Amino acid sequence: MNAKPRSLRRRLTLTLIGGAAVLAILFYMVIRLYAQQIAQQSQDRILEASVTSLLDAAVVRDGQIELDVPYAAFAMLDTPADDRVFYAIYQDQTLLSGYAGLEGATAQTRRTPAFSTRDFAGAQVRVATVTQTLPANPRPVSLTISVAQTRDSLAGTLLTISINAAVFGGAFFLLAAGMALWTSASTLRPLRQIAESVARRGPSDLRPVTRTVPTELSPLVSSLNALMTRLNLSLTQSETFIAEAAHRVRTPLATVRSHAEVTLMRVDKDENRQALRAMIRAIDESSRAAGQLLDHAMVTFRRDQLERQDIDLVAICSDIVDRLTPVADMMDLDLMLVDQGPVPVKADPILIQNAVRNLVDNALKYSPPDKVVRIIVACDPDPTITVTDQGIGFPDDQIDMLSNRFQRGNNVKDTVGSGLGLTIAQDVAEAHGGHLELKNLKGGGACAVLHLSH
Amino acid sequence: MRGLAFVALILWAGLARAADFEERQVFDAPEATQTLRVLSSTDTDSFAPVLTGFIAQNPSVSIDYAVAGSADIVDIIAQCGDCFDVVISSAMDLQLKLANDGLARRLPDVDPSAGSQWRQSLFGFTHEPATIVLNRAAFAGRPMPKTRQELIEALRADPEFFRGKVGTYDVRLSGLGYLFATQDARTSETYWRLMEVFGSLGALLYCCSGAMIDDLAQGDLFVAYNVLGSYAATRPETREKVTIITPTDFATTMMRTVLVLDTTSQAEAATNLVRYLTSGIWAETDRPGYPLPAIGVTEVPPPAGVVTLEPGLLVYLDALKRSLFLGAWSSALEQ
Fold it and tell me: What is the ipTM of this complex?
């Protein structure tokens, strides 16, 4: 999936705020609509009262309508905005008095007025119109009365209500927006806490997450836990497999090597001897690689269940020197241990031994004949074991990558090697809270420093 | 030109027009750049101090001041909408109708004094009660009536003495008289009883307050009803001869109102004039006994009987209502 990642929190917040905005606008519009209806209704009621009082004042005398306009008929139309008032009184189709041209909506022959909104005398007016037939001789007459009023006061009332509704709607929106921010933050807090607690773990910590989580997150967490269990199992299995495989390969190789040596002694032809020597060399290489794989698997395994003991680094190193001196002699090399008394540390002796042996192995391997390989044990301020040779040194441009798995220097030519030695040493150093430092000596030669912590 | 020159300009007498100006006079400003055309129902003599006061404050505005009856003003405006900028009248109902019909401009810059403006376009600037004015000599030895009821009793007690000696506005001719009469009738039935007594005494009918006060001073009239008392009080030649009574039962009080026509091209100067009138400054700086009592200067708080500016004023302008009212009024007075 190449889609841009979307923030759940932002989406939640935007949805909530958007919902609040829609609600606030809806609130404003409903209030406004309602206010408009109420205001219009109250204006209509007053116009109706006015037009009805005019209707009640009408009498027919000699076939002619007389209308004694009550003072209240117009006085009741007084508004705070001093709205203008218009009216028209018709007998049949003849204007008796008032403003010509103010016919309202289709006048109905009943007392309930018909209302309409229209423009008159340069302003928008609300018109109420009634028509009534009055009995008279020789024939009944029709009386039509329209009363109109401008809508300034109504507009003012509406404006006030609109402003209030807008203020309330805005306040509601701000409150809801604040709550949306708070809600989305608090809803997603457990998710963030889990992410943080998983992120804080070390690279090999595959324990299940045990903290209490909201029910919505428990499927995710249990899936995560199941995944980590499977991963852990699979890692263990592969390490076990490698160790087992290396072990199985090494034993028959030893048998093959001894057979090859015996055969070497029996054959006389030069080309056959050469072939057999090449064979033995290849077997050594394979055996060594298998051994290192075994070491590496062991280091990886023991790293997770570190068994720290009180040990002396000098004792361990001198034991290694004792064991490897015959090998060094065979290569015409001098193996020296340099120390200033015991260096006690709390560490896993097997791992330390493994690491130092690999470093010394490397030094012996790459050192030209008649030179010295030194093992220097120091304790200033942290315990360190330094292995130096007088060979070609590390290639400068690769020095940072050499401790990666199966990474070998580009200047090793045909020297036998698997590329695991430095990796093992580094894993051991890190398991003990230290690190492996690689550098070249000024006078030529490589220098590997195993830093340990107390 | 320095100061103010009073120039009698136009006499329209004899012209066959529905609305003739009674007077027309231009008040020149010292640095005149424009002329504000004012149509008013107030006679020039009474209003001149107000206009000179305005020009003193606004030296760039001259005023062309035309006087017409309050009922004629409506006709003049109807015939020539853009002949004038400002209309001043004592007939509040006619003024309200002009504003209601959309002829008046809204003036948002004028400070609205509560209760004395309508739609921010019609502004009242005086409080002038309708009074009963009596000839002091005729009432020597008689009790002075303080209410309409007491006046009715005084007239009935000696009808022969008062016959032909009572007078009031002819409401068919005078807009102000019609306003006073309709407001009286709305307030109390006593008005109709008084009019019937007036009718039985052969009341004289007048177009204007001035003529009634002249007749009172000369002794041709003993009682004048619904006269603007302030007119009588300020005339030195009449002040000694008449008694002005503000009825204690109720005193219908009129506001002189001003509006700016929507067609005006001089809205700013017109607005300044309205602001000047409503401010009441002109009354404070004026000499004592000035005929026009400004709002809030002579009475605080305003009198109870002030006619308010509201749509109800349109009622008596209705053609049906007016014919009914005039019919009743005529039958009461013309017996």
Answer: 0.86
